[in-house]
Amino acid sequence: MAEYGVLVHGAGWVSSEHIRAYQRNPYTEVVAISSRTRESAERVREMTGATGARIYTDYEQALADPDVHLVSICTPPNLHPRETILAAQAGKHILIEKAVANTREELKAMVQAVRKAGVKTVVSFVLRWNPQFMTIKRLLEENAIGRIFYAEVDYWHHIGPHYRQYE
């Protein structure tokens, strides 16, 4: 049995990527998926093969599940502050999908709740640990490529029209 039971909250495109990552980690098990609708949570559960995950349409009920130790918040950014604060108050560790919040005040409230609860949190900036990004960061720190005055990057992925925010 895994050490940490995971609740994936939100059942959009990115939630399936979170679930797949947890499935590859021997220390985690997706024990619950929550979403506004049962249908979307069940769709993600079936698509990822997380057949043992319980389905919740009430986030606070999902947080009350004693098998949940950490939460992946995969909802739109305007919902992150409330959901992060509730997860912290429930004593759950938290992974927050980007963007973390929409205002500085929301972010401050989130940080305060996390600190008060003593839980761990991280923002899902997955490319931070990409070897190419780490190399670029090191080259910049060492001033190996000089002062940069303009840079442009793109992110190649398989997101297409199936992703509701594609347009």
SSE blueprint:
Elements: E1 4-9, H1 13-24, E2 28-34, H2 38-48, E3 54-56, H3 59-63, E4 70-73, H4 80-89, E5 93-96, H5 104-117, E6 121-123, H6 131-141
How would you describe what is shown here?
With 167 residues, the chain is of the alpha/beta class. It has a single domain, classed as NAD(P)-binding Rossmann-like Domain (Rossmann fold, 3-Layer(aba) Sandwich), CATH 3.40.50. Helix content is 38%, strand content 16%. The protein contains 6 helices and 6 strands. The chain has a 6-stranded parallel beta sheet with strand order 3-2-1-4-5-6, with helices on both faces. Helix 2 links the parallel strand 2 and strand 3. Helix 1 packs across helix 2 and helix 4 runs parallel beside helix 5. The longest helix has 14 residues. It is globular, with a radius of gyration of 18 Å.
* SSE series: EHEHEHEHEHEH
How far is the N terminus from the C terminus?
41 Å
**Assigned CATH superfamily:** NAD(P)-binding Rossmann-like Domain
- Estimated radius of gyration: 18 Å
Could you say what the CATH architecture is? Answer: 3-Layer(aba) Sandwich
Structure annotation, total helices = 6
What's the domain count?
A: 1
CATH topology: Rossmann fold
Number of strands: 6
Largest sheet: 6 strands, parallel
Order of strands side by side in the largest beta sheet? 3-2-1-4-5-6
Structural class: alpha/beta
Helix content: 25-40%
Task: Return the average pLDDT rounded to an integer.
Answer: 92
Runs in which pLDDT lies below 50 for 5 or more consecutive residues are: none
Proportion in β-strands: 15-25%
Please report the first level of CATH classification, the CATH class.
Answer: Alpha Beta
